[in-house]
Design goal:
Blueprint lengths: L1 H15 L1 E3 L16 E10 L5 E9 L2 E2 L3 E5 L3 E7 L7 E8 L2 E6 L10 E8 L9 E4 L6
Length: 142
């Protein structure tokens, strides 16, 4: 039964993640959680035929952490790990590549009572529509 509850929590985290393609708008109210965010893993995928620079920033209840830039060669995937230095609740992951900017709001983790990790995909061109895409993966396990 515990496994079913964890699966429901994972789905709620996925359903709570939304991408905003028009840029960064609004603020989300902070929430409390007994669990601690250990790290955020982002799979950067450059499907283009030339190198691209991806820019990432994790927003927490205390503000936006420093922006990170990652130069990814053509046709290369790279996994990036971001870890907050303190116990903070995540609000959103922001990203940009080329003329594309997106924000994935992180919702649903406020009910977690255990430590967790978040995973995202950030692709220069998604296989189904050939445009950049940022999305949260439905798994919160580290």
């Amino acid at each position: 039964m515990l496994g079913v509850a964890r699966d429901v929590q994972r789905r709620q985290v996925l359903l709570g993640a939304t991408a905003t393609l028009s840029g960064f708008t609004g603020c989300i109210g902070s929430f409390t959680s007994d669990g601690t965010l250990r790290e955020v893993n982002v799979e950067l995928r450059n499907t283009d035929d030339r190198a691209r620079t991806f820019h990432l920033a994790l927003e927490t209840e205390t503000g936006v952490l420093d922006w990170e830039s990652h130069h990814i060669d053509a046709g290369v995937d790279k996994r990036v790990t971001m870890a907050p230095n303190e116990n903070v609740s995540p609000v959103a992951l922001h990203g940009a590549v080329g003329d594309f900017a997106a924000s994935a709001d992180i919702l649903g983790v406020d009910d977690l009572d255990e430590d967790y990790c978040l995973r995202f995909h950030f692709w220069y061109a998604h296989p189904s529509d050939e445009r950049p895409q940022m999305a949260q993966v439905a798994d919160i396990e580290c």
